[in-house]
Design a protein that fits this description.
Elements: E1 9-10, E2 16-19, H1 29-56, H2 65-69, E3 78-85, E4 92-99, H3 108-111, E5 114-119, H4 128-131, E6 141-145, E7 153-154, H5 165-174, E8 180-185, E9 189-190, H6 192-195, E10 203-206, E11 209-211, H7 227-241, H8 245-258, E12 262-264, E13 269-273, H9 277-289, H10 294-305, H11 310-313, E14 314-317, E15 319-321, H12 327-331, E16 339-341, H13 348-363
Parallel strand pairs: 2-3, 5-6, 5-8, 6-7, 10-14, 15-16
Antiparallel strand pairs: 1-2, 3-4, 8-13, 9-16, 11-12
Helix pairs in contact: 5-9, 7-8, 8-10, 9-10
Length: 364
Amino acid sequence: PQTTEPILSQHTKQNVTSTKEINQCSSFRLLRVRFLIVSLISMLLVVVIPFSSLRQTPFLKSYALNHLNQSISARKPVNITITRINSSNQNSMTTTVNVNLTRKFLSYWEKNNVALVIHFNQNYYQRIDFLTIYRELFPIVIFTGPDPHSKVLHCPDGGKGSYAYICLTRVVAQYPNYTGYLMAHFDVLPIFYNLEKKDLNRIWIPMINLTDPSKANDWQWTAPHGKQAFDGFFSTLRNSSRNNSLYSKYLDNYMRNAGKNLPLSFSDIFYLPKRFVSDWFILTDLMLQNHLFLEIGFAATSLLMTSTTISKEIIQLNGETWSGKDLIISVRGKNNVDFHHRIDHQSKLHQSFVESIVRRSLIN
């Protein structure tokens, strides 16, 4: 009997289908059965072996992005379908074998039960569908924003980003059982495999800069939510400290770490360990009452909660504004870069960059 060799093709849904035509001749029934078994085993080897290699092979910095994009998603099952066609009457019998390639390992963030919070300062919710890619890494991804949406934790108090710290407070209150909370603005790309090296029991924030109040004459300092709001916030702490030792501790922490200076930090990425949650609730509520700007608020709260020294309690993150040009150069040899800023998720090139970071994090 004539036979045709199985053809293996991979579709976007990563279904692998092989069709084998076998004439139904009774004298060769045993041969056909053996041939089908051998074919099935061969196809399983073709699918499973490359996938196993992908999981075990470290990321090579010289890989082009298209090599990464050819990898099999760790969460997708693969179906193998064998169709036998009777050449005499064109009747066919199809058998589908489900090969479950769902990854059996947990990502670093899943093992450590860390929640990812993506904050929108405006209604750019059309990006959410793409940003769900982060669910490949995290046990939960929570979106927050100023406008109601079925996929968003509504945070109108955030003032379109000006008081984004209160949105993190809302998330922690609603999802309280996580080891820590990594918050990022929607256009920030955390470099997850570099962040995995950080201590999850410490605060993560970009570099905190201290400004002499007499020189706070530019930026947001002159706005109502700047120096004026900080003075009001600090005055509230002082008044409360007279009858509450906890507030006294906050003031002592701040004076030891910053003196009389004003704090400032890039605030589009921040990590809050669970051990600081109760302090975070108290301080962010006071900041919101005084309408303190987020880039002052995140920095101030970090210093107020630090009971020892900055070096022991806070990890300062390093970031870059992504050029939007070369994907490989962007990650090659940059083990000290913790995030990239200004990612346009509607750009195919930018999407590819995000996908490459997520995939490298899975196989790192």
